[in-house]
Amino acid sequence: MASKYQYQQHPHATARKAKGPAVSAKHEQSKQKLGINGKIGLSITKSVGTMWAAYVFFALSLISLPAAIASGNTLVIVAWIAQTFLQLVLLPIIIVGQNIQAAAADARAIATYEDATAILEEAKEIQQHLAAQDEALDKLIKDLARVEKQIKN
């Protein structure tokens, strides 16, 4: 009984191996695909998305604080908090957090990719093992048929 099974790797596995894991735009392979506007935006996001930018924006927001307090108007003070302080200071902090999350997501994507690659290689080994078992079973079947023939004679 010859094995009828012939292993053929799924085309997606070959394409995925060539493409690599999906990671964020900060990795070099993705930067090359960005146009000029994407590169400018990424550069600005990298510079604004730092804690140092948050500190600078915090200091900048304090410049208008005395005028807001001196006005004595609650609406002006609330507007300063909402429009000046929160927007200027929280924006870079949020970007820092997103960068940390993106790095973690990249690490997960790479780990998942490596796991999937390992599973594919294990599946290939299982196919080779099954092929070897098929050969051994074929030999046993032939030997058993020969023995049965000898017994009948």
Polypeptide structure, described:
With 153 residues, this protein is an all-alpha fold. The protein has six helices and no strands. The two termini are 24 Å apart.
Task: Sum up the structure in keywords.
153 residues; mainly alpha; 0% strand; single chain
Q: Quick recap of the structure?
A:
With 153 residues, this protein is mainly α.
- Radius of gyration, in Å, reads 32 Å
Q: Supply the number of structural domains.
A: 1
Tell me the series of helices and strands, N- to C-terminal: HHHHHH
Whole-number mean pLDDT: 86
Note the overall shape: rod-shaped
For the report, how would you describe the main beta sheet? Answer: none
Helix content: over 70%
Structural class: mainly alpha
Low-confidence stretches: none
Strand segment tally: 0
How much β-strand is present in the residues?
under 5%
Distance between termini? 24 Å
User: Given the structure, what is the number of helices?
Assistant: 6
Helices and strands in order, then pairings?
Layout: H1 11-19, H2 28-31, H3 36-48, H4 51-63, H5 65-71, H6 74-152
Helix pairs in contact: 4-6, 5-6
